[in-house]
Specification:
alpha+beta, 3-stranded antiparallel β-sheet, Double Stranded RNA Binding Domain, 3 helices, two-stranded antiparallel ribbon, 137 residues
């Protein structure tokens, strides 16, 4: 049982974990040991609440394919156990991020005093540069 929060958890049979060989450099061991983990989680077939499913499917995330399956490849660590824990933690993070609702952004304008300060500093900088000019009269 994978715990997402106090009220939400995912059964182990909903998460498909498979060991694959990791990419990249690794010496003689890299072609023999399957230390990377390939995690697949089907959002539509899961026991998550409908709110979570809708939010996850609406996300623009390259790890979620068009069929609604989250695919995570964990190969950062040298051991299979650490990669499994990393993949599960990344799945938890994706699901938790679906619950966060951002506040709508409100457009603001700079104050008159801020505009005046900006223009004064630009004028002062221009005068300083003009003093450096050799052809200054």
């Amino acid at each position: 049982m994978l715990r997402i929060s106090q009220h939400i958890s995912i059964a182990d049979d909903e998460i498909e974990l498979s060991a694959i060989r990791a990419q990249g450099a690794g010496g003689q061991n890299v072609n023999k040991v399957s230390s990377a983990i390939h995690l697949r989680f089907d959002i539509n077939a899961s026991s998550l609440p409908e709110f979570f499913k809708q939010r996850l499917l609406a996300r623009k995330d390259q790890r979620i394919n068009k069929d609604g399956v989250i695919i995570i490849k964990a190969q950062q660590y040298r051991t299979q156990e650490k990669n499994r824990a990393d993949a599960l933690q990344r799945l938890i993070d994706i699901i938790k991020s679906a619950t966060l609702i951002q506040k709508p952004r409100r457009a603001t304008k700079p104050s008159k005093n801020a505009k005046k300060r900006r223009m004064d500093s630009k004028t002062q900088r221009g005068k300083l540069k003009q003093l450096r000019n050799k052809n200054f009269d």
